[in-house]
Write a structure and sequence with these properties.
With 128 residues, the chain is of the alpha+beta class. Strands 1-2-5-4-3 form a 5-stranded mixed sheet. α1 crosses α2. The mean pLDDT is 93.
Length: 128
């Protein structure tokens, strides 16, 4: 099936897809939020933690690979991969933040966007 024949996933489906890609590589504390009413540049924000700079880069690479393989999309922009402490993947309507855990605690985007509705994710038992 070509890209033109694909149906676009809903916000919740995309959040679940990204979360599953993160969990496959042992990402932690995944949160997905609908941010369209708070910020003007995206509809969905996914935030996760990594155990190290190298882990953050590996998580980001895996998310990019999975989205490209299944949905045929490439990020519009990527920031922070060289340092790995905070990697941002920009897909236009979807933004993914992969943080080394202490950096996530410092910037606290979870609190900053705390008013955004959370998307309930189906967390596999292996992650709980």
């Amino acid at each position: 099936m070509g890209k033109d024949e694909r149906t676009e996933p809903t916000t919740a489906e995309m959040a679940q897809f990204i979360a599953e890609a993160i969990w496959e590589k042992k990402g932690l504390s995944v949160v997905a939020m609908e941010v369209a009413d708070i910020i003007g540049y995206a509809d969905l924000m996914v935030i996760c933690s990594a155990t190290s700079d190298r882990h953050a880069t590996a998580l980001a690479d895996h998310v990019v690979g999975q989205i490209r393989e299944v949905h045929g999309d490439k990020p519009i922009g990527q920031e922070g991969k060289s340092g790995g402490r905070w990697v941002l993947l920009d897909y236009g309507d979807v933004v993914v933040h992969v943080f080394h855990r202490p950096v996530r605690d410092y910037y606290d985007l979870d609190r900053l966007y705390g008013d955004a509705p959370k998307i309930e994710l189906d967390v596999p038992e292996s992650v709980l």
